[in-house]
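Listing S7. Sequence submitted for prediction.
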Amino acid sequence: MNAPKVLILGGSGFVGRHVCERLNQLGIKMTVMTRRGDAKSVKHLPFVDVVQGNPHDPKALKIALTGHSAVINLIAVLHGSEDEFEKVHERLPTSLANICGELGVKRLIHISALGADQSAPSMYLRSKARGEQVLHSIAKTKSLNLTLIRPSVIFGLDDQFINVFAELQKYFPVIPLAGAQSKFQPVWVVDVAHAIAQCLINPHTTHQTFELGGPSVFTLRELVQFAGQWSHHHRPIFGLPPFTAYLQALVMEHLPGRTLMSRDNLLSMRVDNVLHGKFPGLEALDIKVPQSIYGVFGVNESNSPR
């Protein structure tokens, strides 16, 4: 089988960088589409070409996709309005799948989210589910080889998850925490990248959904404690009652800079972000032993606050 040439949407982001590095190791040619056209994090890789364009513009997307045999969509947003979630998680996949059908691009790998459900409490999870539904529908009519990947929260040394909680504990004497008992099954970004690469090169993964999670389940409180342990800034953590948590999220939505918490995030955390065994996982993608958060960050599990 000829090696695919892959268009990657979201290739310069946290997960995208690792996906590009993995595919580069495999000698797979890639095009990364970005709005600014710089993509400094992946531009140095020998099998990566960078093109400038807005993936939400169907004409630009069609131009970028021409000449490719596969596409990986990593674009997502964690915060926003109903319309913003719909734009990224539903309208973009719809446009992408239709253009794939028009150009004869048969292979489409789409990154969704663990817990995606049209009856979920949050706009984020509902929009992810609608995106999956529209992709399934178009895949049938356009004969696309679709694979959906649903990861839990993704961690890594360069993430914006553990690092954010570690940074907060450097500067604040206590951490008031919304959703402290919410459960997650964090998965290493390198394992996710390897899983995506496996889906690309293994034809048996088409028409399947995979759920990706790490070896352990944590509450959000435990993950914040872990971040403090790793950064050597242990701070007391106070779980907030629901109404206070709501007020905290409301305030944080309107603070300048990057949003760390929103009311919709709180609604998402009502659903445990853990594997339920409904779909195959990392082992089915030839990752027999998922890496633990302790191993990645070099923390002794025996000294864990759990």
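Caption to Listing S7: primary sequence and predicted structure tokens for the chain studied. Residues 162-183+216-273+289-303 form one domain. The longest strand covers residues 145-151.
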